[in-house]
């Protein structure tokens, strides 16, 4: 189980990336990591932690793609960057099953398409992060920003890929798929969602109809299908609301002595709530629809988030997610 990691992608590079990889390897003995980045700096970080040198391979890359770079130009011109070299390793080496990067989202997505390539039958790959639900489970939001303008066939592919993802990763036999719209009624929505609704009804998935954004985290759905514009607005709204609620809760607890005393009795519950709402524990967003596993971790990922993303990538490979998606796409094409 060998995974390539863009060590210099992200705000906390290389420290968080190196430590996250080491922690992931401690949890899974079958993991091997190819670390791509400035060898001198990576080697200095590795000296801080006990590790099996036989399970770590270093690939030197002196350049870095930043969020200020134009993604398409950076992928073409920054050939010595850690991301480009990691993508080339992923594409060309059969022993590498996946890639993790916390770098520029645009560059990761652009590189995934042009360096690694799309699966046959996929019009547009999509980002599919997991969100927590009030039932304690997860819901997959696909797409969350990779494709702001979509045709109906793209969203039907998103639904299929999202369903495959939840089946493989969480052993959900028949994931419930909802289409994000402005009402639950069949006729609600714009022209795009109306046409997608009709198509999803005919697909071999468990499509349960339209859903409203306020129900995204209820646990009533396993997959939320949206174009990248709507999905990104939904994602950022959820993140902002969660941040606000935690901030208001903290302010309320600190407002009086009685509230502080009461909080002591609620400490365990508050700790669990914070854990459940922490994106760092959920890994990254897989870029579904490309020929190999690519996981985009949050730009501000700490070592906990990096560890989760690496373990997530390993599980996706173990569950043969890419093969499952490719098989479902072939079946859909054959039935068209």
Comma- or semicolon-separated keywords:
336 residues, five-stranded mixed sheet, 12 helices, 12 strands, globular
Compact summary:
The chain is 47% helix and 17% strand. The chain is α/β, with parallel strands linked by helices.
Query: Kindly state the mean pLDDT as a whole number?
Result: 91
How much strand? 15-25%
* Number of DSSP helical runs: 12
The 3D shape can be described as globular
**What structural category characterises the helix and strand content?**
alpha/beta
The end-to-end distance, rounded to whole angstroms, is 36 Å
- Computed Rg: 21 Å
Low-pLDDT stretches: none
Q: What's the oligomerization state?
A: single chain
Q: Classify the helix fraction into a percent range.
A: 40-55%
Strands side by side in the biggest sheet? 3-2-1-4-12-11-5
Number of strands: 12
Main pleated sheet:
7 strands, mixed
Q: Name the helix and strand elements from N-terminus to C-terminus, one letter apiece.
A: EHEHEHHEHEEEHEHEEHHHEEHH
Fold blueprint:
Layout: E1 2-6, H1 15-27, E2 32-37, H2 39-46, E3 56-60, H3 71-77, H4 82-92, E4 96-101, H5 105-116, E5 126-127, E6 130-132, E7 138-142, H6 152-170, E8 176-181, H7 191-201, E9 206-212, E10 223-225, H8 228-253, H9 257-265, H10 267-276, E11 285-288, E12 293-296, H11 303-318, H12 321-335
Parallel strand pairs: 1-2, 1-4, 2-3, 4-12, 7-10, 8-9, 8-10
Antiparallel strand pairs: 5-11, 6-7, 11-12
Helix pairs in contact: 1-11, 3-5, 4-5, 6-7, 6-12
